[in-house]
Design brief:
Largest sheet of chain B: none
Shape of chain A: elongated
Largest sheet of chain A: none
Largest interface: A-B, 35 and 36 residues
Order of helices and strands of chain A: HHHHHHHHH
Strand content of chain A: under 5%
Radius of gyration of chain B: 18 Å
Radius of gyration of chain A: 19 Å
Order of helices and strands of chain B: HHHHHHH
Oligomer: heterodimer
Helix content of chain B: over 70%
Helix content of chain A: over 70%
């Protein structure tokens, strides 16, 4: 079902044009990579504050108030360019184990951010100036740092076809994780 | 003239080891990207502030002091991972325009960051004013050029 849809998506003329374009695809990919500096960069700075590692004399709400809009802009650009890249080769990415790992950890990072904002951040007024934030805030920062690092590494490795379905034989667990089967035959 | 030097680079043990391994280049490259993330954050916190954006409630000097170890640390990490990546494909780099754009802009960006930007950030004029805005914009433009040229090495 999903495979048929993604197969169809990858055969739409815009998807083919995007994948085959000499400059548009590299420009979209470069924007995706360079925006890491804005999105993950500002996230890392905020997490360093939350873990009490750096910016210990800067109030936490300065980060969550004034820097977060920039993080959001970065995320919007990453998401838009990322979706375009996925659209250029949907079936291949769908069956790529690094892509799958990236999506899972991405959701974990999102859940962690949501829990932080709905939870301990609500009382940030009480510990705003504390050099070392409360334990749950430090954990949120540490989880965020780890999750985004994994997302970046997995994202970079998507480019490599080591475990692609059309490169057989692969160990059974690789094929299971990549969802390689009858429907994946056309995934290249 | 420099070509023999680049050939020698590629023949070094480290260059050959990275080139011959399936995993080494991608893994080192991924760590290079992690360095880019930290570098981007450490630069932006201060540059946005110089431009009158971002953490505007904080003095520039305080942000710059806090960001400095992460700025220096990420640059060291990027150099430590960038050199083996270069060694593994030095001859290709020699004939790659993007590589030369990157290598020529990098020393300019480094000099500007540690000689000009550092002084302006420490002086801590509040609000930063025209000088601060120009320094913040030039810093972002220089590092964006280095990063964009770096990414384009793989495409050209």
């Amino acid at each position: 079902m999903i495979e048929r849809f993604l197969g169809w998506l990858g055969e739409t003329s815009w998807s083919v044009a995007l994948l085959e374009s000499l400059y548009v695809w590299p420009l979209v990919e470069s924007t995706h990579v360079l925006t890491l500096g804005l999105f993950v960069g500002t996230t890392v700075m905020m997490d360093l504050r939350l873990t009490g590692t750096a910016f210990r004399n800067v109030p936490v709400t300065a980060f969550t108030g004034r820097l977060l809009p920039w993080t959001r802009i970065g995320f919007a650009v990453m998401a838009a360019t990322g979706l375009l890249l996925f659209y250029s080769q949907p079936l291949r990415y769908y069956h790529n184990i690094f892509f799958r790992a990236k999506v899972v950890v991405l959701m974990l990072a999102g859940a962690n951010a949501a829990i932080f904002h709905a939870g301990v951040h609500r009382s940030a007024g009480d510990w705003d100036e504390d050099a070392t934030p409360p334990r749950s805030a430090r954990i949120a920062g540490a989880v965020s740092l780890t999750a985004w690092a994994v997302v970046v590494i997995a994202g970079r490795l998507i480019a490599y076809n080591w475990f692609d379905c059309d490169l057989q034989p692969q160990p059974g667990w690789v094929n299971r994780l990549a969802g390689c089967g009858a429907g994946a035959a056309g995934a290249e | 003239m420099l070509e023999p030097f680049f050939r020698w680079c590629e023949s070094t043990a480290l260059g050959r080891a990275v080139a011959e391994s399936v995993w080494a280049f991608p893994v080192i490259e991924a760590v290079h990207l992690l360095g880019l993330c930290v570098l981007g954050g450490a630069l932006l916190v201060v540059d946005l502030r110089l431009l009158g954006l971002g953490l505007t409630s904080q003095p520039v000097a305080r942000l710059a002091r806090n960001a400095r170890p992460w700025l220096v640390g990420s640059l060291v990490l990027m150099a430590a991972t960038g050199v083996p990546l270069f060694l593994s494909e030095a001859i290709r780099a020699y004939y790659n325009t993007s590589f030369w754009v990157k290598v020529c802009t990098l020393p300019v960006a480094l000099t500007f960051t540690f000689l000009v930007r550092e002084r302006v950030a420490r002086r801590d004029a509040d609000p930063p004013g025209a000088t601060g805005r120009i320094v913040g914009a030039v810093s972002l433009a220089l590092w964006l050029t280095v990063a964009a040229a770096g990414r384009w090495i793989g495409f050209s």
